[in-house]
Design brief:
The chain contains 15 helices and eight strands. By secondary structure, the chain is mostly helical. A hairpin with a 2-residue loop joins β4 and β5. α6 packs across α7, α9 runs antiparallel to α10 (349-358) and α10 (349-358) crosses α12 (388-396). Residues 195-199 have low confidence and may be disordered.
Length: 511
Amino acid sequence: MDIDIIIIVSSAVCAAIFAFFITRYATKKTGDKLIRDVTTEAENIKQKKILEAKEKFLDMKKEHESYVHDRNNRASQKENMLKQKENSLNQQINENQRKSKELDNLRENLAQQIDKLEKREGEYEKIRKQHIEKMEAVAGMTADEARDLLVESMKEEAKSQAVTYINETIEDAKLTAGKEAKRIVIQSIQRVASETAIENSVTVFNIENDDVKGRIIGREGRNIRALEAATGVEIVVDDTPEAIVLSAFDPVRREIARMALHQLVTDGRIHPARIEEVVEKVRLQIEEEMIDVGKKTTIDLGIHNLHPELVRLVGKMKYRSSYGQNLLQHSREVANLCAIMASELGLNAKIAKRAGLLHDIGKVPDDEPELPHAVLGMKLAEKYKEKSEICNAIGAHHDEIEMNTLIAPIIQVCDAISGARPGARREIVESYIKRLKEMEDLALSHPGVQKTYAIQAGRELRVVVGSEKVTDQEAEKLSFDIAKKIQDEMTYPGQVKITVIRETRAIAYAK
């Protein structure tokens, strides 16, 4: 603001000096009139600048007064606030001083009461000693002796009461445990109740018309013989309209035969070479389907990180029955039962479900060694890095090995529950399938035998041998030896026909 005033005054002075010099040095040519005009104009400018400086000064003075007034008001407000705070602090100080006096009074009262209590305690102790001395004189024994005697008597009484309480608790626990166990089992069965599935040993293949039957049989029966030899399934073509019966105890063989027939009939080309090609292709499809079924089953049950080989074996259970009960359905049912029961008992439901699904995995190995299926399943689980408690539960569910986890008895119980429901299993079917399997294994144990198929409900055994290993004479002897061994080692109804098939193939390729 001061700088503005200086600038205005300087301008006025400059104007005056300019007028002075104009007046002094003006030439004679301009004349006195020009000098007077310039002088007048300079004087006007000077007066104008002086007025502007005065106005600016007044404005600045007014602003300064306003600023000083505002500053004074703020200072007054702060002063009032400080006075209020000072008054408030004075009040708090007074209140604290009052409370401090009250606390001092309370301390004095408390000290007086403590002194009184100590005096009374001393008097009480004195009176107690006097009473003890009198009681000892009356009883004829010291206080320690009396206390020991009392403690001994209380110990005996406590032992008696404890034994009674323990016996009552055990009896009550037995009753409660029995009821609780029944409740858990019944709830588990109700929550996992499923339809009973009894598998047969035949599959009906439907056809559009009976003309297809002739094409399936082929000239002189060569197509049907090739199909039976390739699949190991007996194909029954009779007067039943629009149907062909596939008979075999092995569900995998029946499914391969059904799918192969379907593809052959759909394609229309039915001859021995084509049949063998299609059957081999269907075998690969069945393997892929087993893997897909295994994956779907593990996803449905929420079981993760299962080894791919175990997944394949789980899918293979779809084509295996146990006493007429589908093995995959049985294993899924056992898995769900185990999970529910483990949850009710506060155990790990995921481990129980995993062990339940895998408990019968030993029934579907690719090679079948002479081991109980529970032990074989345990070895498979160990091979594919399953946890030890799962392996123990699998191996112990038929008491082949000792149980060392709480999951093992749950697997055993749930396996029994799934198989014990009325109509769930058929012992006759299982013994029948077992007899046919033993018959095939017996023939397969002979040297030179490549494949064996039990057909016609076990009344015929077809044995395929390699032509380079077995001669015609040896084939005749082989059929006799197998028949004699079956006769000596097996029990079966009726008679069994042994058919040894030996064929020579010559294959060449035109390039």
